[in-house]
Every structure is written in structure tokens, then in C-alpha cells.
Amino acid sequence: MASFTDLQLEQLEPGIWCCTIDRPKALNALNGTVLSSLLEAFAWLQQQDDVRAVLLTGAGEKAFVAGADIAAMQTMTPLQAREFSQLGMQVMATIEQFPVPVIALVNGYCLGGGCELALSCDFILASDTASFGQPEVALGIPPGFGGTQRLARIVGKNHALSMILTGERINAAEALRIQLCNQVTEPSQLLELGLSYGRKIAANSPTAVALAKELIHKGQNLDLQYGCQMETELFALSFSGADQTEGMTAFLKRRSATFSLS
Ligand code: CAA
Question: H or E segment at 125?
Fold first, then answer.
């Protein structure tokens, strides 16, 4: 267990950690302090020996994250807003580039900066009470933590335009239909669902998982030919590590592979 301001980190099982944004009275809204805590928490996790999957969620039963903190933003100057957006962007990039999968457990409102935070995770599991939205335009601003870019890449331009320009919320079933989230379950089952994904990931080669994550995320911004060249290079690189020997030997000897973190 490690505590940061308005954020908790807890090891749930070997290799599986849960990061909980803990400002339930403000529906876990992201202010500068929470964003800095997220950066500190992921830097701290990177120093630990046994991190194979991270679950990211919000405290309380009502919200994952209801957005960037409107009270904190209300009086910002353009310069302060730029710095705030840059800090948010840094958090999203840190999660996206973290060498271990990060899974969003969306347990309620997932709005604005909260939706952008979930979109920076590797995939999204949602409770059937969750709702998603990018309501920024009703506040007189466009999204500022990457929503116009990641949402369009994940659900496509048409759904992104519809969500962002209307600002309307969609429920978990609709989020699943447009592939904004990967799976929906009852609220009481959400953590267990996250753990089941975490356990499957944790049983695999951490090196191969990290390489595959990097290839998929970087490939989103590359043309197919260059992305495939990068895959060839990282595929070849994986043959220089112990995990490839262990994984293939275990298969051929009909035993389970045991991968240790290098
Ligand atoms: N920022 C700051 N405080 C917030 C907040 C936010 N984004 N969302 C909720 N809160 C606070 C409320 O002010 C309230 O505080 P008080 O009890 O001190 O009054 C508390 O959380 C509970 O909220 P509500 O009373 O409003 O709860 P509700 O059940 O009636 O409504 C809600 C829930 C629909 C989520 C509503 O709170 C809401 O619409 N929140 C704002 C959602 C939003 O617009 N998010 C986008 C923010 S902008 C952004 O994110 C920019 C960006 O991309 C970087």
C-alpha cells in the first residue's frame, strides 16, 4: 500500500496493483494535485519489482472521474489553462507509455477528463451503471486532455464527433456497442473482472506484453508498412531475452511457463 495526496495504491495480488483516485466528495475530479499524484504513483510503480498489471479506478460508488476540476479551472488564465492541459497530457502519455498494462475500471460517471483518462488506459471495463461523456462544450471549452484525439482514434470520427459536439452522456451498453469499453458487468463484479484480466496478463511474459503494448500504441500513429517494420525489430529483439527461451521450451516440454521480471 502506498498513499499519495487524494490517491491510493494497493497491491491486490502478486503482480496486480490497484490505483484509486480518492476524492469521492468531488466525484474524483482531476485537479493539479490529483494529476501530480498520478504521475508520482506511476513513477513509484515503475520502481517496484512485481508489477504486471495496474487497475485504475475511482473511489466511491458514483464516479470513476467526473472530469477535470471545474472549480479549479474557473478562473484560470489561458497560460494557466495551457499548463493544466500539458500536465493532463503528461499523465495520459505516462499511462499510455507505461510498460505494464493499465486497465480502467469505470464504476460510474466517466466524464470529460475522466473519459480522457480512461481512454489513455489499455482497455476499459465498465459497470452497467457507468456513463461516459465529453461534456466540455457545455462549459465553453473543448476537451483538453486528449479527448478529441484518442476518442476519435478509438471509436472513430463519427462517434467522437457525436459525443463531443452534443456533450451528451452515453450509458455502458452504448459505450460497449461503439467499442469505447471492452466489457460491461454488474458493479459488484467489476473488481473481480479486472482481476481476472490482470491474472491472465500476469501469467504471460512481461517483456512480450510490454513490447506488444508499445507496438500497438505506437502503431496507431504510423503507416502500416512502418508499423510492420517496427514489429519485425521488436519481434527479433524478444529473441535475445530469457522469456522467449522459457516460453517456447515450456510449450515443447508440455509444462507451464514461468516468467520472472528482469
Ligand atoms: N469538477 C469539480 N467538482 C465536481 C465535478 C467536476 N468536474 N463534478 C462533480 N463535482 C462536484 C460537485 O460540484 C459537487 O460538489 P459539492 O457537493 O461541493 O457541491 C459534487 O462533486 C457532487 O456533484 P453533483 O452534486 O453535481 O452530483 P450529481 O449527482 O447531481 O451530478 C454529475 C453528477 C452529472 C457528474 C455532475 O456533477 C456533473 O455534471 N459534473 C461535471 C461533469 C463535467 O462537466 N465534466 C467535464 C469537466 S471539464 C474537463 O474535463 C476538461 C478537460 O477535458 C480537461
Answer: strand 123-127
